[in-house]
Design a protein that fits this description.
Layout (H helix, E strand, L loop, with lengths): L2 E8 L3 H13 L3 E4 L7 H4 L6 E2 L17 E2 H14 L4 E2 L4 E7 L2 E6 L4 E9 L20 E2 L12 E5 L3 H11 L7 E5 L10 H12 L3 E4 L3 E6 L1 E7 L2 E7 L1 E4 L7 H6 L4 E5 L7 E5 L29 E3 L9 H15 L10 H7 L9 H11 L8 H9 L1 E6 L4 E3 L8 E6 L2 E4 L8 E4 L4 E2 L1 H6 L6 E4 L3 E6 L1 H10 L1 H20 L9 H6 L1 E5 L4 E3 L8 E6 L1 E8 L2 E9 L3 E2 L1 H6 L6 E4 L3 E6 L1 H10 L1 H24 L4 H16 L8 E5 L8 H8 L8 E8 L2 E5 L18 E3 L5 E3 L8 H5 L6 E3 L8 H7 L10 H7 L7 E3 L12 H5 L5 E4 L1 H4 L8
Parallel strand pairs: 1-2, 1-8, 2-5, 8-19, 9-16, 10-11, 10-16, 11-12
Antiparallel strand pairs: 3-4, 6-7, 7-8, 13-14, 14-15, 17-18, 20-27, 21-26, 22-25, 22-27, 23-24, 23-26, 28-35, 29-34, 30-33, 30-35, 31-32, 31-34, 36-38, 36-43, 37-38, 39-40, 41-42
InterPro entries: 4Fe4S_Fe-S-bd, 4Fe4S_Fe_S_CS, cNMP-bd_CS, cNMP-bd_dom, cNMP-bd_dom_sf, FAD/NAD-bd_sf, RmlC-like_jellyroll, RnfB_subfamily
Protein name: Putative oxidoreductase
Organism: Sphingomonas changbaiensis NBRC 104936
């Protein structure tokens, strides 16, 4: 015998509980199937004492069950009490192993042999049972685990948490709290941003780091786990630290095998992992289908949560919605839909209505979402439900013909996608009439997103166009959640970078073969992509970061040049044949695009203008090589000194700088005019310290901002007070709250926290009326007040004298020309030896 119900709900997490509660309220025959002896196993497995957040705060909650931010134990207690109060029919120890049948007559088979009959099925099973695993070598005896129950169980251990999402951050905070005594905790995140974590969690993490309770490693990935140790690949090279235990919280994937098999037809097919062996697999076009073949893809769902199997609905994390409030709303909504209330609008409808308010009338929210999803290539892997969440973090607007979207040289890192219409890319700064069109469905702005370089062209709307602007964090999150989007962005970025870099009248059809064989590779600081004396014909394009070129002279490596993002190397061996003539290695952690040599050679053969362009760059490098070879005996000491000086500058962060202040100690007379001019331009507070910083030979790098390509100070600024100006300057606006995150994140010590002095009177007022302090000095009252030790209020750093006519005051005030501001590619060249 088997029981029969109107609705069978599989999984008692927030989505399943809410669905069951609504079914009970409506008096619908239902059963909530939970494989454990308790409700909401996912929340139950949260670490003890964990604070559960109720975000997004602007989203209204629809559910018979209450949910407010609070401790895990309180949330679970409330749900247990209210589930019983509403009379929810719960069946514990009910582990579903298969679902067969069709709409109106489903059979759910349990592992203990029981069967449940239902007219409709709601899958609310989540993804936590299928965690992403560590991909680096793990030595026998090393401890790696993927869950954490009670942080208080671990004491006096060196523990590394891998993963910068909410789960990883919360685990790390718990292990570093007083309740877990004596732990030395480190958290590793593969990117600079914590794009998948909630703001309060990130703030708490950085606060714990600043208080010295834990170490936070960004732009780092585990390379090897040994008993008692873990090794990371970081942006600055390899790092090895003590580690007794690794807790890996790197997300999870849908339980695809079970879901796909629901109501599917099966057939014998070859096992892709074991050619020649047959396996029983799901027949194509049957069962619950997913948006793609990627492991992280989600099921294809209708706007009412129905899967490709009529009568089977999917909600919660399995539908791509990880937030509890979203899940609970879906549980309520899906039961309403099943009960015939198809007119119900989602809870986020008012928020999205405001997003689309400026677009042409005639479409509702669902229609706009579907238009954006189907028209834009990188969004096609999102389900309609994921599109709603995606648009909460993105903006969309209509542009008029000729309206500028962004200008050449702007420092911006958002991504744009064209839903309707087209844009024109002005590829020639001297002649705006020379343009290249980009049409509906395509993206632009990807170079700024990936490399951090300035916008390479001005882009205008060619016609009335509807364009989505995707913030950097939203774009990063999209690429993590939708592998197909990441692949498409990578492909397009490679294609565009080649067209922009080589120009020569190339089209995307011309470079198709090269793009198809291209590979993006991440290299750590000091790692070589080309080694002198080796065979090889591949060409490398620097996608982000920077490279240095070295040549062995007299048995020593001699620095030849600095190569920034947006350049290419490796063409000499391709054109001339023979061995590599120099070594090219990463100055900092960098991404490079490897272009297959044979395909690139065929492209050059078919495009003489391209070959001429490449040969021009090659000739410039050949001149440098010849220069060093011819003069290596006459000034070998100078070559060695220059090479060591260049290495010193790279070590001091010049490899990621866009503008740096250098002082020639042979010319500096110590007058301090540079500091005084800086102070006088900034209300009496100098942004540089001439004597501080390091010196090699005659070259001194004072403590003044480098204006990095990817500024570390921007990584976590709560009020978003740090910006890039039109000339590339990184500056802090008046919204700074004095949290100090930028100061702590800057690896070069060029930001300080200070109380901002009052505005100074004019120079004439001081000169003739004696008002205010003198040039280069803050007011006496402020100096006395600030000496009392009051908490600093604002972050102070160089802004390249933005808005001040004549440019940086430090350079203008230097009487001997000792102070110069340069970009690395202007300064780091062997041609300086000729001076």
């Amino acid at each position: 015998m088997s029981d029969a119900f109107r609705i069978a709900i599989v999984g008692s997490g927030p989505a399943g509980l809410s669905a069951a509660g609504r079914a009970a309220e409506l008096g619908l025959s239902h059963v909530l199937l939970e494989k454990t002896d308790h409700l909401s196993d996912t929340i139950y497995k949260y670490q003890k004492g964990k604070h559960v957040m109720a975000t997004p705060v602007q989203l209204a909650l629809r559910s018979p069950l209450d949910f407010d931010a609070g401790k895990r134990e309180k949330v679970l207690g409330t749900w247990d009490e209210q589930t019983a109060k509403h009379g929810v029919n719960v069946m514990h120890h009910a582990d579903v192993k298969a679902i067969t049948g069709a709409k109106g007559d489903f059979t759910l088979k349990l592992t203990d042999g029981r069967e449940v009959k239902a007219e409709t099925v709601i899958l609310a099973i989540g993804t936590q049972g299928n965690p992403n695993l560590m991909r680096c070598p793990i030595e026998d005896g090393a401890v790696v685990q993927y869950t954490l129950d009670d942080p208080a169980e671990y004491n006096d251990e060196h523990i590394t948490v891998v993963g910068g999402g909410d789960a990883g951050i919360e685990n790390a905070l718990g292990l570093a709290a007083e309740v877990a005594q004596g732990n030395v905790v480190s958290l590793c995140n593969r990117s600079a941003e914590f794009s998948t974590a909630k703001g309060p969690n990130v703030a708490a993490l950085l606060g714990a780091r600043d208080a010295g309770r834990m170490q936070v490693l960004t732009e780092s990935t585990p390379a090897k786990v040994e008993k008692g140790w873990i090794t990371f690949d970081t942006r600055d090279g390899e790092l090895k630290i003590r580690c007794d235990r690794v807790i890996a919280r790197m997300g999870s994937a849908p339980p695809r095998a079970f879901v796909e098999a629901c109501c599917a037809e099966f057939e014998e097919k070859e096992d892709p992992r074991n050619p020649g062996k047959m396996m029983r697999g799901v027949k194509a076009g049957t069962g619950v289908q997913f948006t793609s073949n990627d492991r992280l893809a989600y099921p294809v769902l209708s706007p009412t949560f129905e899967s490709t199997v009529p009568g089977i609905f999917v909600i919660g994390a399995l539908a791509g919605y990880p937030l509890i409030k979203h899940c609970m709303n879906q549980g309520y909504d899906v039961v309403e839909f099943i009960n015939g209330n198809t007119a119900l609008k989602p809870a986020d409808e008012p928020i999205l209505e405001k997003k689309f308010a400026g677009l042409p009338k005639g479409r509702d929210v669902a229609e706009w979402l579907e238009l954006l999803r189907t028209n834009i290539g990188i969004l096609q892997g999102l389900s309609p439900l994921q599109m709603r969440e995606f648009m909460l973090d993105s903006d969309v607007r209509m542009y008029r013909p000729g309206e500028v979207i962004f200008v050449r040289g702007a420092r911006e890192d958002s991504l744009f996608a064209i839903a309707e219409g087209s844009v024109l890319v002005e590829i020639n700064p001297q002649d705006p009439s020379i343009t290249v069109p980009i049409g509906t469905g395509e993206i632009f702005g990807e170079v700024g997103l990936i490399s951090g370089r300035t916008r390479g062209a001005t882009i205008r709307a060619a016609e009335k166009s509807i364009i989505v602007e995707i913030s950097r964090l939203a774009a990063l999150r999209l690429q993590r959640q939708v592998p197909s989007a990441q692949k498409e962005i990578t492909r397009i970025s490679i294609e565009r970078q080649l067209l922009q870099l080589f120009k020569a009248g190339l089209t995307k059809e011309d470079v198709a073969e090269v793009v198809a064989g291209a590979e993006v590779r991440t290299v750590k600081a000091g790692e070589a992509v080309i080694t002198e004396g080796e065979q090889g014909s591949d060409v490398f394009v620097i996608r982000s970061g920077s490279m240095i070129v070295e040549k062995t002279v007299g048995g020593k490596p001699v620095f030849l040049s600095y190569v920034p993002a947006g350049s290419f190397v490796g063409e000499m061996a391709l054109i001339d044949g023979g061995l590599r003539t120099a070594t090219v290695k990463a100055a900092i952690k960098a991404d490079v695009i490897r272009l297959p040599g044979e395909a690139f050679a065929r492209l050059m053969a078919s495009k003489p203008a391209l070959e001429q362009r490449v040969r021009q760059d090659m000739e410039a490098r050949r001149i440098v090589n010849s220069f060093v070879e011819e003069r290596k005996h006459s000034f070998s000491g100078a070559v060695d000194l220059y090479s060591q000086t260049a290495k010193f500058l790279i070590d001091e962060g010049i490899g990621e700088a866009t503008d740096v202040l250098l002082i020639d100690e042979n010319l500096c007379v110590g007058c301090d005019n540079c500091e005084k001019a800086c102070a006088d331009s900034h209300d009496g507070l100098s942004r540089l310290d001439r004597e501080a910083g390091k010196t090699y030979a005659h070259l001194h790098v004072p403590t003044s901002c480098r204006h990095c390509e990817h500024p570390h100070c921007m990584a976590d600024c709560p009020p978003n007070a740090i910006h890039r100006g039109p000339d590339g300057e990184v500056f802090i606006d008046d919204t700074c709250i004095g949290c100090g995150n930028c100061q702590r994140n800057c690896p070069y010590g060029v930001i300080r926290m200070d109380k901002v002095p009052p505005k100074k009177p004019s120079l004439l007022s001081w000169l003739f009326l004696g008002l205010g302090p003198g040039p280069g000095e803050p007011s006496h009252e402020w100096s006395v007040e600030n000496s009392k030790g009051e908490k600093p209020k604002k972050a102070i750093k160089c802004d390249m004298c933005s808005g001040i006519e004549g440019g940086p005051a430090c350079v203008r005030a230097c009487p001997t020309g000792a102070a110069i501001r340069v970009s690395p590619d202007e300064f780091l060249t062997v041609a300086r030896l000729e001076a």
